Amino acid sequence: MSGSNTSAPGSVAPSSPEPLSFAVHSLPDPRALGSSAQQRAGRWKMLLLLALCAAPVVASYFTFYVVKPRGTAYGELITPTVEIPADLPLTDLQGRAVQAESLKGQWLLVAVQPAACGAACERQLYVQRQLREMLGKERGRVDKLWLIPQDAAPAALRPELLAAVSQQGIEVQVLQVPRAQLEAWLKPAPGHALADHFYVVDPMGRWMLRAPGDPDPKKFKADLDKLLRASAGWDKAGR
């Protein structure tokens, strides 16, 4: 019949399209995305913090061991640096053991002189004190250390000398060390003795500069100023 809506025999009515399935598991979890972003941000912050902490050390060693300003240094830079032996047998004047590790954390201005300490020794200790005082507000970053090579019996200082190196505020740390072990760490220039020099040790416990024992104070101070500027922030004031 005309206008009939009937289908031809055997035909199948077209099926209606099925809606797309949006199952929960098919979408990323917003919480997981947030957590991942936070972790990445945390890693970047940690790396930035490590870079900031390492920058002064890197700058100091880049200046002295890559740029190598030998033409402007008064003292002799030691390359490579020589680490203080962890088992260096140090003792104080009372014979008590002192750990080498305890010397780290500060710049050290080191004199090596016998306990008898004659005129040249007294002169060097005086210059050591004056050099530190010349550093002004930076002097708290430098310790004065007097190492006594010990050959046999423990050292005994004259009472007036002991009083001089023990004055509050300008005291000198005095330690004894067997000569053989000391000579295995610090070395004088060819043709000189250990007592002929000052030795500068960085806060990481590395011997890195040697200067005359009776130096030009202004020139030697200039070296110390450069070291302290280059290492600002990675040593500890006062110990």
UniProtKB/TrEMBL annotation:
The chain crosses the membrane at residues 46-67. Keywords: Membrane, Transmembrane, Transmembrane helix. This is SCO family protein. It comes from Pelomonas nitida. The lineage of its organism: Bacteria, Pseudomonadati, Pseudomonadota, Betaproteobacteria, Burkholderiales.
